[in-house]
Amino acid sequence: MKDIIYKVSEEVERALLDEKPVVALESTVISHGLPYPENIQTALKMEEAVRKEGSIPATIGVLNGVVTVGLSQKEIEYLADTNHTILKVGVGELDYAIGMEYSAATTVSATSWIANFFKIPIFATGGIGGVHRGVEKTWDVSQDMHSLGRIPMMVVCAGAKSILDLPKTLELLESYGVLTLGYQTDCFPAFYSRESPMKLAHTVQTPLDAAYVLMSRLKTGIPGGIVLCNPIPIEEAVPYEELESIINEAVIEADRNHIEKKAVTPFLLSRLSQKTDGRSLKANKALLFHNASLASKVAVEFGALRRRSKKTIGF
Ligand code: PSU
Ligand code: MN
Questions:
Q1: What was the pLDDT predicted at 72?
Q2: Which of 80, 195, 232, 235 could tie 287 with a disulfide, CB 3.0–4.6 Å?
Q3: Angstrom distances, CA of residue 132 to CA of 106, 125, 135, 144, 179
Q4: Mutate which of 42, 62, 94, 107 to test ligand 1's pocket (most atoms within 8 Å of Cβ)?
Q5: Positions of the chain with pLDDT under 70
Q6: pLDDT at residue 244, as a whole number
């Protein structure tokens, strides 16, 4: 087995050593969540959104068994190309890709693990995985849930993907001790929609407040993450009711075609895009940029707090 199992880009390494704000970004959304070649532009524009607000982006993936933190444009292009075999790995499968020297896109769970390993506590994505509809039959619950329950990471997202069973997802997050925090909202956003019937009990209004809460989580040492729910920009939102029937049909179709396990999410996302004439895709991209910007703002505030914070005994 080779010795090198990870590579950190020079820029990200420098930023971490200098305690500059860094935002982690995942690669499953690139390889399996968006169509080629739009996935490349989207990944690069997410990085741009992070930079614009003052942080350094660290897009994470696995290239021929090497965990790479801070993918270059060429590396992003490689992972985005559907002509290559790119695995989709959660934290449980990460070592398979490393040990077998495969290339792989990392999900929220695997990306959180890697980011935390390199002491990057803030991560932006589209929507977290969760409890799938029809879970009674399939037992399909994303590894994201379990990882969020044990990795102290602030995940900035537009809620959970609306293809999921949102009430059950929210309940499970609570059971796992994950803080689900609304950003300027008291509603659990449903990815493409700003609103859903589910209420959130805890909200923050500013990136600074989000940074305070994250700092507290790191200081108390309580395991588990914080999901910072950032509703999609109003202009791009698709009403919740409008999507419901389309999603229900797609779920039935997935079941009929025996689409299972890791293939379920990519299948539903692409079906949705077809059935909304690309509107869902447009919305998906908009919320990704929006989340990258907010994560970067929080990272900047968090960086300032960290510089000011005194060494203490206990927390
Ligand atoms: N959000 C998106 N598109 C995606 C995903 C999230 O907008 O493709 C990915 C994330 O990487 C998430 C994963 O962790 O889907 C969940 O997949 P699964 O349901 O198979 O655990
Ligand atoms: Mn699953």
A1: 98
A2: 232
A3: 19, 18, 5, 12, 20
A4: 107
A5: 1
A6: 83
Query: What separation in Å is there between the alpha carbon of 215 and the centre of ligand 2?
Result: 31
Distance 265 CA to ligand 1 centre (A): 6
Cβ atoms of residues 182 and 255 within 8 Å: no
Of the candidates 65, 15, 61, which has an alpha carbon nearest to the alpha carbon of residue 39? 61
Mutate to test the pocket of ligand 1, among 29, 38, 151 (most ligand atoms within 8 A of CB): 29
Annotated active-site residue 275? The verdict is: no
Q: How many CB atoms lie within 10 A of CB 280?
A: 24
* Cα 314 to ligand 1 centroid, rounded to whole Å: 36
Read off the tokens for 277: 């004439």
Nearest alpha carbon, ligand 1 atom 11:
107
pLDDT of residue 272: 87
What pTM did the predictor assign? 0.95
Annotated active-site residue in 47, 75, 93, 161:
161
Query: Which amino acid, 195?
Result: E
Pocket flag, ligand 1, residue 165 (CB < 6 Å): no
